[in-house]
Amino acid sequence: MAGSLLLSLQFLLLTLVLRSAGQEGDKSGEKIIDGVPCTRGSHPWQVALLKGDQLHCGGVLVNEQWVLTAAHCLMSEYNVHIGSDQLGDNRSQKIRATKSFRHPGYSTQTHVNDLMLVKLSRRARLSSNVRKVNLPSRCEPPGTTCTVSGWGTTTSPDVTFPSKLMCTDVKLISSQDCKKVYKDLLGKSMLCAGIPNSKTNTCNVRLHPSLAPDPLTFPPSTIWAPELGAEQFFCTPIASQGQFS
């Protein structure tokens, strides 16, 4: 199942809800600039992948026993917390996982196809706080408003990691306009989103293997995944746009 599901997912742009497990004061990491706390229960598909009791990465629940995350988040085992937008919430479902399957086309150099499925040791219990994510069937046009969510730092250049899930709205930007900023760094499967002439943004600075961008959510609750690049991917305050895949 894992292989066929990964192959089908390679044609979709899927959400990754990821953040650093780095210590406070580290200037590197993903960011949700000018974000606000998400409405409680508005992202019931988001999960946290912990290494011990420390947040390692995030992901989304694609069905009761499978979580989608980033291929570079590979570990031998995971503590998966599901069902809360508050880190450390004792009410969340806690499930171990030891099996994970990277996308067969994943590249450690370019992070193309940075997708991985993690199989839970038991099925998650679906409820109003735990839901499977809706997968997209088509690309949305430039100008579409999207919600970015995650536990990334809400300030830049200094870092402030929140314990509550944060959200901010951005708009899709055309490939032509995005290439004016990223030029050859923009791959064919990537897209840009942001608010021109605004500080609202998501981005990565000095990427570390445990870091990744935050997710874009398109109405109605469809999912798209940010695409990781190399360390050259920085915030772009002039255009206020971030790069996704």
UniProtKB/TrEMBL annotation:
Recorded GO molecular functions are: serine-type endopeptidase activity
UniProt entry keywords in alphabetical sequence: Disulfide bond, Signal, Zymogen
Question: Record's Pfam families?
Answer: Trypsin
Q: Which residues form the Peptidase S1 domain?
A: 32-204
Lineage top rank: taxon = Eukaryota
Alphabetized Gene3D superfamilies for the sequence: Trypsin-like serine proteases
Signal peptide positions on this chain: 1-22
Tell me which Gene Ontology terms the entry assigns under biological process: positive regulation of antibacterial peptide production; proteolysis
GO CC list: secretory granule
List the InterPro entries.
Peptidase_S1_PA, Peptidase_S1_PA_chymotrypsin, Peptidase_S1A, Trypsin_dom, TRYPSIN_HIS
Q: What is this protein called?
A: Kallikrein related peptidase 7
Q: Which organism is it from?
A: Neovison vison (American mink)
